[in-house]
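We treat protein structure as text, and this decision shapes the records that our systems exchange. The tokens are whole numbers drawn from a learned vocabulary of local backbone shapes. Below, we set out a record of this kind in full and without editing:
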Amino acid sequence: MPQIPEKIHELTVGQLSARSGAAVSALHFYEAKGLISSRRTSGNQRRYSRDALRRVAFVRAAQRVGIPLATIREALARLPEERTPTREDWARLSAAWRAELDERIRQLGRLRDHLTDCIGCGCLSLETCVLSNPDDAFGERMAGSRLLPVRRPAPEDGA
């Protein structure tokens, strides 16, 4: 892994990519989503401050555990600009995300448990399928073999 001399305070996108392991396209995407930021040189090249390395690591770790990018962006927005997320930042944020992850785990467990039933029946019936229609919620509103989009009437012109 290439080392960055201490006297260099800014990184090119290639250096940031090499050090972080994130593809250049991912770094551009992160920047477009407001997860990291750069300044532009007079030649319109991106330059990232050294704290971008920690921010990219933070983003990638959060993504690996299933945190949506919008949630990661909100978390990073609460940190002062130019400050790298610390161990304490991660501990505080990951504790807040734990309930969300626990709920997703419960949902995935239910999905896993009902997947065999669904494959076994093979019909994906809205009446009986626990994946498409949990607790026959649609059956109380309509009949039919599939759920069609509800079309709302166009608003009346005038009165």
Observations:
- Residues 79 and 85 are 7 Å apart (CA to CA).
- The beta strands are 10-11, 39-40, 46-49.
